[in-house]
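Hi there. Long-time user, first ticket. I'm pasting a complex I've been working with (about 687 residues overall). I'd like to know whether the download I got is complete or cut off, because the file seemed smaller than I expected. Thanks.
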Amino acid sequence: MREFLSLRKTYTVARFREQVIESLLLICALLSIATTIGIILVLLSESVFSLNGEKAFFQEISPFDFFFGTKWAPQFAEKSFGMLPLLCGTVLVAGVAALTGLPAGILAAIYLSEYASPRIRKIVKPFLEILAGIPTIVYGYFALEFVTPFLLRPFFHGLLGLDVDGFNALSGGIVVGIMIVPMVCSLSEDALRAVPRSLREAGYALGSTKYDVCVKVVVPAATSGIIASFLLAISRAIGETMAVVIAAGQSPVITLNPLKSIQTMTAFMVNISLGDTPAGSIEYKSLYAVGLTLFCMTLAMNILSQWWMRRFREVYQ
Amino acid sequence: MTASENAASPDPSLTPPAAASDAAGQGAPEHPLPQAAELRTGQRERPYFLWLCSSVTWMSVLVLLALLISVTQNAWGWLDWQFLSSFDSRFPHKAGILAGILGTLWVISLTILFSVPIGVGAAIYLEEYAGNHWLTHVIRVNLANLAGVPSIVYGILGLTVFVRMFGLFGPQGILLKYFGMEINGLFWSDWLGGYLIPLPFGRVVLSGALTLSLLILPVIIIASQEALRAIPPSLRHASLALGATRWQTIRHQILPAATPGIMTGIILAISRAIGETAPLVMLGAMTFVYFGPGNVDSLSDLQSHPEGLLKAPFDTFTVVPIQIFFWVQKFKPEFKSVAAAGIMVLLIILLLLNGLALFIRHRYSKHLRW
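Hi, the file is complete. Here it is re-exported in full:
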């Protein structure tokens, strides 16, 4: 198209206008890159370098103590910045979310793509869209007011006699799991639907049952897309904030007991910003260090997901 | 299992004894008859897998219903005109969401103002202008990654860039420390009794709107790109062949045709912004706000002090989800009901927006067919 337009290279007002518009639009597109650079710079400021000549976070606390310390007490008189408790809380919540959300998401995707009639799809799909559109704070309320008192307490306390904290990692993890179901479902369904019909028909022609075709032909053929959706979902679970802040508590401890109150990295960040933490204090700077860690974790998962998608994609003619 | 076997079998009374006697009689490693029975009865079909898949799917619908019912039940009797028309209070029966609604209106209007032109512009560039340049490749990869950045990280971005502006300005600012310049704002105005634009912005509506704009930009760009991609190339070719310039083609042919798709994407992005809490908490949106931004609480306020409209973007604020968050955290059990009422307001707004998106998609998908 460019060749056609430049047959006559005379500069007219119209041509000038076209170029101005094109550059304006380019600037809009470049803003997304500026945002990324901005995020990285902001996270590095205060944590790795500081603008106003004071010490940055990692100049006061050694990265080794930060990443491998086992005590997180930024607001005590004797401050301690060992991030493992926060990491443990985050992994616990994301783990519970993955255990509930991923199987549910993939099974729902198989159902919608392989079994459900168009009519059922038409009914279920909007529900999943609504589920995806509900704000995370509502899920937090749901965890605190419904999941813990009406599901977890009767089961774990009433039946098994275990102590269930009012704030616990399990309820937070479960609602985050519910939250990622629509995402896993729609991405995996896309992957399943991209598997060509001929593959299914070949399976049936060889005498396979519907189950065989689903589980042994279609799902393996769509693995790359499914795993990519899993990785994206886990990344989302790691970065999930409000539901976890409300439901999972604010006590940074290292535990694998999901019935205990814990603190995730995101919950800590919200906690710090709620208090009147003066800019320049070490707690304030720790916000950036934790944010940087969180950003790196989710970015790594996202990049891994995209790489996986590209690397292992089966291409059908 | 047996029930389904029997149901699927052509002769239910015969199959189980036949299979049993055969297994007892032969006992050999090969089982020709059980295999045949297996095929005939459809044992390998494993209906439990279908049950599992469908029950999980319907379970998610059930969860949604449980969520809606538990919220409605808690909010019952609390969502009334008093709740919608009063500000927050220490007493649960007097607490209301008006400050949140006004704040959400201001923040979201400004967010739309910033993010929609830029987002659609970027999408137009990427779809209509950009070739296979390395830069456009970088932008595309970058967009996918930006969409996956946790919203709380955008909160830190907003806190540093908009609320504090890297600590450049003000009485303790870096500019004063190194260059001896104390800058507290731009455009002093006696009429407003202060700067038109204070620097740094502080915890104000504008900071929130700019942060949310950055947050939903990738969503808007990706959705608009998809809408633009759905326009058949023949439309472009026809317009260009008639002598229209590129921009004329975009402005008069492609954009009108893509509007329904773009609108749907924008509405979904906006509904995400409305429910977004974490970044605004990071910015330090205020809790106890007993006034709308710029003190404009009603239309009559606009007549008595119209300068409120100019002040509002630089006023402190709260939004609906933040109000909910603080009510959830209170100890008095009545505040749980107040929070539920707030959630109802939020959900109703989102439901209306989603309905609008569905309506647009439905209506225009019928009218435009190529």
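A couple of notes from our side: Chain A has a mean pLDDT of 88. Chain A touches chain B through 94 residues (CB under 8 Å).
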